[in-house]
Amino acid sequence: MKITTDNWPYPFWIAHRGAGKLAPENTLAAFRLGAQHGYRMVECDAKLSADGVPFLLHDDTLARTTNAQTQLTANASAVAGDHIWAELSQLDAGGWHSPTYAGEPLLTLSNAARFCRANDLALNIEIKPTPGTERPTGEAVAAEAARLWQDASIPPLLTSFSPDALKGAQAGAPDLPRGLLLDTLWTGWLETALALGCVVVVCHHALWDVPSITLAHGAGFRCLSYTVNDESVAQRLKDFGIDGLITDRVDLFVPT
């Protein structure tokens, strides 16, 4: 199914990085916990290993959310994308969060797709390229997503802060829906989203107001907001006419 603003299939509430901060982000444990809280859509971050395997990680480096500093050799690169998947797959991506999750591995996009499809979860894949690999990462992640969800009724939503990554996604899987992420309303954002064939614009919650949402809706976009963890902020955005919210607080907001 080709997604447009008129046949939008995604739920209003989206669990950030799987289950926000309640489980180690971008892991299967986080996906499970988000689903246990009733969320029917999760967001994740995807980049490429050195040998081209799409896997889930937010940061450019491995230090914050893995045990790479003790597992890899002393002179090994800290940049995640410099390592082949065989090395990355051996890292602990859960122990940094809490002992409960020690030993949780990094997650390939393939395994994320398997879990989501088995549990009827929609997925928002944020393309997070290693700097300098924006276009090839967008193309590879999109092509892999198209393959993994080729017969799915609800395809994954591909988003990125990088226009070059979205250009790659457009080339790699032109039929998958795309969205431009914004942390500022930089000059030309609307025209860029239109040129990239996006169906949605995803802004930091402080950027949206009635005029900006009206402008985006008038140009044919759906409007989403990240990362909404406060009830008053959520209500303000709902009053503005927002189309969906990404949250860490899967324990606070009841998804609809």
Please state the structural category. alpha/beta
Q: What is the helix/strand order?
A: EHEEHHHEHEHEHEHEHE
CATH architecture: Alpha-Beta Barrel
Described by strand count, sense and barrel closure, the largest sheet is: 9 strands, mixed
Name the CATH superfamily classification: Phosphatidylinositol (PI) phosphodiesterase
Spatial shape = globular
Low-pLDDT runs? none
**Strand composition percent:** 15-25%
Work out the number of β strands.
9
Name of the CATH class:
Alpha Beta
Roughly what is the average pLDDT, rounded to an integer?
97
Please tell me how large the radius of gyration is.
Answer: 17 Å
Helix fraction, binned, reads 25-40%
**Measured distance between first and last alpha carbons:** 22 Å
- Count of DSSP H/I helices: 9
Question: What does the model show?
Answer:
The chain contains 9 helices and 9 strands. It has 256 residues and is an alpha/beta fold. It has a single domain (13-60, 112-247), classed as TIM Barrel. The model has no long low-confidence stretch (mean pLDDT 97). It has a 9-stranded mixed sheet. It has helices at 28-36, 68-71, 85-88, 109-118, 134-148, 163-172, 189-195, 210-218, 231-240, and strands spanning 13-15, 41-48, 54-56, 122-127, 157-160, 178-182, 200-204, 222-226, 244-247. Strand 8, helix 9 (231-240) and strand 9 form a beta-alpha-beta unit.
